[in-house]
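Kindly go through one protein, given below as sequence and tokens. The question is how this chain folds according to its tokens.

***
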Amino acid sequence: MAVADRSAALKLVGGNGQISLGKRYAGRHVLVEETEPGVWIVRTATVIPDNESWLHEAAAASDLQAAMEWSASHEPTDLDLSETLKRLGHGDA
């Protein structure tokens, strides 16, 4: 595990209640936890939409890995394109 450089900076909370973390964090989501009054922990966060969370589960990762291995060992072909389209429910191709 890499140890991050720790630094402290004095910031002033503006009249609108905001502080600036700097341009390198512009556009990023952050998680702000108040551990006790006046003590905050600010961490960068990645937000995953609910309807995509299944992609980050072990079963999905395993299925994706198996699919990637299969595709690497099978040349693409469109010989059975009509049959494939029917099987996928796209009617008469």
About this structure: The longest helix spans residues 58-73. The chain has a mean pLDDT of 89. The helical segments are 58-73, 81-87. The beta strands are 29-36, 39-45.
